[in-house]
Amino acid sequence: MMIQFVTVKRLLLVLAALPIVAFAQSLPDRQAGQTGGIFLDVLGHPHESYIELLRTRGIVQGYGYGIFRPDILINRAEFLKILMLAADGSEVYDVENRSCFQDFRGQQQWFWPHACMAEQKGIIEGYPDGTFRGEQTVILAEALKIAAAAWDTGLPTYIQAPPNWYDPYMDLGAARGLFDYFPFNPEHLLTRSEMAYLIARFGEPIAYVGSSSISSSAPSARSSYSSNKSKSSQGSFLCGNAALESGEQCDDGNTEDGDGCSSICVIVGQPIRHAALRIEQRDLGSVIHAAGSKNITLMAFDAVASRQDAWITDVTVRIASGSATAATNYRLEADLDGDGTAEQVVATATVQGTRLAFPNFQVHIVQGIPTRFEVIADLSPNVSADRIGLSFATDDAGFIAAVGDEDEEDLSGIVLDADECSVSLCWIRVITAPLRVVTVRTVGNLFITRDSVPIGSHQILAGERSDTLLRLSFYATGEDVRVRSLDIGGATADTERLELYTVGASMPFASARGSQCAVLATGHFCTNTDFLIKVDEEKTILVKAVVKSDTEGATGNATVVLTLTASTGTAHAVGARGELSGVDLSQNDGDSTAEGEIFVGTAAPGANTAITGVAHDIVFSKLSSIVSDSRDSDDMPVPTTLSTGLNDVELRTLVFSVTASNVEMDTDSFVLFNTLDQSVIAPCTANQPTNEITVTCTDIHQRIASTIDSGQNIGLALRASVLDPQIVESGNSLQVRLTGLSDRSNLGTIEWHDGLALFQWVDLSVTTVRSTLYRTR
Q1: What is the C-alpha to C-alpha distance for residues 348 and 442, in angstroms, rounded to an integer?
Q2: Alpha-carbon span 132 to 109, nearest angstrom
Q3: CA torsion, points 70, 76, 81, 85, in degrees to nearest 10?
Q4: Do residues 333 and 345 make contact, with C-beta atoms less than 8 angstroms apart?
C-alpha cells in the first residue's frame, strides 16, 4: 500500500510497508514482479545499483520488510530462479513439467518452475543421480556456465581443448570484465549481491517481469509487464504509451513511479529522496592489554549514507562486559579526512551507569563513502584485573541519531542486522559484530642494568672464546617476565657469535648471532632463545664472545665494546612478555611510571640509558703472564720471566720503575738482556740517578732476542751499576717494578706486537710485577 504525506517544507513521498504473510517472508525473492520498496540493508553497499536494477525490473523482492541480505551465500535454487527471470522474464512459468528432477517430489516449491524451464531448455542437467540439489551453494564457474547457456552466449574457441571444463567460462568472464571485481578463482562462492553484479555486468538484456503465480493449477492468474501498459479505471486512455490522451496529466512512455509522471499518468512533484544510513560494526577480536595502557580501541564501526548525504549527531553505547571503571577518558574519534583512519576526537563520553553517551557532535557522512568511527579509551592504571566490552545501546530507540543533509529530516527508525522494522519505516540499519572484550591485567616490568661487579678490559685471542666481556643484571617486577629477544651491539666482523652464561655455569644457555636479528645491523648480535626472569629476583647474565680465527676470516686489530641501545624504536635492545598476563611488555615511554614496560640502563622508571661495556681488543697472540723469577740474594740484578699465548709475541718496549731510596745509580749503565745470552744487550735510558727512576728500554726487538714463540717463555734481565749504595747515613732500599700492565687506559709500560698490530697493555690478572726488595734498615 502506498500513502502520500505532504510536509510543510516540501512534497515528501513516504512508503509505508505493511506486514506480509508469513509464507512470503520465509521464501527469498519468491514473488517476481512485486518490486516493493527499497532494500534498506543494501543502502551504501558496493553492489547497491545492481541489486536495485533487479528490484526495479521485478526480478528480486528480497525477504520482506526491506531486507535483501546481500552478503550471504546464494544457493542453486535462488540463483537459477533469479537468472531465469532475468534472461526469460515471465516465460519461465510456461513450463508444464514442474517435477523434472528426482528431488522434486511432494508439495511444489517456489523454484521448481525455473529449474524445470532451465532443464527443458538444456541450460542445466542436474546431478548424475537425477537430483537438482537446490540448497547447495554456487561457485563462480558454475554461475558463468549457467549464465552463458541462459543467454545462449558464444564461447571462446581453442586450437586445443583447454585442460579444465571451466576454462571457456572463466575466459568469457574475463573478456566481459567481470574479474575487475571477482577473484580469478573458479571455486569462489557467490553471495547474493555478487549474483546481482554478475547478471548486471554480464552484458546481456535483462527482462522486465510482472507478477506471477507459482501455482500450476492457475497459470492464467498471473499478469505480465511485458507490454508495459496498464488501463486506467478512470477513463479510456492507455497510460504508458507515450501519447498524451484525454484524462492523462502526463504520459512518459512507462508506468513507473518516482520519475515525475506516476504509474496512473498523474503529475507528481519530484521529491527529495529521504536519507538512509547504514552502520556496520567491525569485528576487532578480543585482546589483552596492560593496566594503564593508553589509546585502546574498544569498538569500531563504519557509517555509509545513501540517497543523500547525512550527519551523525549522537551515538550511545553501553558496557556489555566488565565495568566502566576499567577505563577512563572515553572518546569518539572519526575519520574526517577520508584516509580510512579515525584520528579526530569528535565527542567525549558522558558516563551514565552502564551507558556511554557521545552527544551533540556533527560528522558529515558523504553518500556512498564509508566513514570510520572508533571508541577509544585509556585503561585504568590501578586495577589488578578487569575487562571491558562495548556494544551499541540497542535498548535505546535512538542510540544513533542522524539527519539528512538536504532535507534536514531526522533519520527515524533503527533496525538491527536482519531483524524486521518494528515501526512504520526504518531509515537506519545497524549491522552488529561480535563483542570485543578488552581484558585488563597488571603487567610486569623489566629492568636491565649493567651489573655492579666491574669487568676489566680483555685481549680476545682470535679463534678462541673470550673471558666475560659484559655483565648484565635483569630484574622483574609485578610478575615473572620472559625475555624473548636480546639485541647486543658493539661486536665486530671478527666475532663469530656471542654466548650468554649464568654465573658459575660452564656452558652457555643461549647464543646470539647477527643473522638472528629482526633488524639486521652491523655489529649487532641477537638471541633467539627465551629465558625467564623470576619476579623480584635479580639475575646476572654474563656475555662472552667466540672470535673467528685468521683462517676463518678474522682480520684482527679491532676493538669490541658491547652495548645495549637505549632506543625504543624498531631496533630496540630487549623484547619481553609477562609470563602470567601473556602481554608483550611495551618499550619504555620515558615517564616515571612503570606501566608494563622494559627499562634499559635504569633501575627505576625513567628514560632509557644505553648500557656500554669496557673496550676489548682482538689479538692474534697475547702474553699469558709476567712474573718475577729472581733466585738471587740481596743487591743482585733482578731478572724477569715472560710467557706467551698461542701465537708469537714480539716485545718492543719495556718501561721499568726503579725505586732507589738513598741509593745512587749509574744512569748510563742500565741495559736489558736475554738471560740465555748476556753478551747481547739493549741499552736503556734512565731519567735520574736516585729516588723514583724511570728506565725506558726501546726497540729491544732490534737488539736482543725478544720474540716469544707460541707456548714458550723467555727470561729478560735489567742490569745497572750502583755508584753509592748509601748516600747518607740512613736506611736505604732498591726495587724494580713493571706497573700498569693490565690497565688499557694507562698505556706505555709495555709494547708488543702480535704480527699485525702493536699493543701497549696486556690482559693479565695482575697490574704490577715487582723484583726482590733490597733494603738496609
Answers
A1: 26
A2: 12
A3: 80
A4: yes
Task: Give the C-alpha separation, 173 to 194, whole Å.
Answer: 13
544 close to 508: Cβ distance less than 8 angstroms: yes
The band of 623, judged by pLDDT with boundaries at 50, 70 and 90, is: confident
- For cell 590501578, the residue is 382
Which residue, of 441, 475, 492, is where some domain finishes? 441
Q: Are 36 and 29 in contact (CB under 8 A)?
A: no
Q: What is the pLDDT of residues 385-402, one digit of tens each?
A: 789 999 999 999 999 999
243 part of a folded domain: no
Round to whole Å and give the CA distance between 460 and 548. 10
Domain assignment present for 84: yes
Question: What pLDDT band is residue 645 in, cutting at 50, 70 and 90?
Answer: very low
Work out how many domains the chain is built from and give that number. 4
CATH of the domain at 311: 2.60.40
> Of the candidates 409, 512, 459, 519, which has an alpha carbon nearest to the alpha carbon of residue 756?
459
Q: Are residues 420 and 456 in the same domain?
A: no
For every residue of 237-250, DSSP letters joined together read -EETSS---TT-S-
Residue 724 is which amino acid? D
The answer on 496 and 398 residing in a single domain is no
Last residue of a domain, one of 175, 202, 221: 221
For 332, the domain range is 276-441
**Plot region of 556 (φ>0 → left; ψ -120 to 50 → alpha; else → beta):** left
Instruction: Please check whether residues 74 and 173 belong to one and the same domain.
Output: yes
Which helix or strand (DSSP H or E) is residue 196 part of? helix 192-201
Q: Is residue 144 predicted with pLDDT exceeding 90? A: yes
Query: Do the domain assignments include residue 430?
Result: yes
Give yes or no for a contact between 315 and 428, defined as CB atoms under 8 angstroms apart: no
